[in-house]
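Why does residue order matter? Because the sequence determines the fold. Keep that principle in mind as you read this record.
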Amino acid sequence: MDGERSLISYRIGEYGSVRIKLAEMLDNRGITRHHLGTLTGVKYGVIDRYYKSDSVERVDLDFIAKVCYALNCKVEDLLEYEEPQT
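Structure:
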């Protein structure tokens, strides 16, 4: 069991978090949220929520797949695990 850790006694945030990097990706490429909506067929409100990382508790894998296809990128370009701050 080397390298494994239990989550049973942890509180939210103690095990790290996943950061959404959609804003960085779009800004670096000069792509607007409206244009991403046109490319993917996803509503602006959904894209905006991911762009702002606003109240995203569960990631929609279909959305991530559409963005990866449209932007020709990888999942790790959009999502990043951040270790807990000690």
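The helical segments are 22-29, 33-40, 44-51, 61-71, 75-78.
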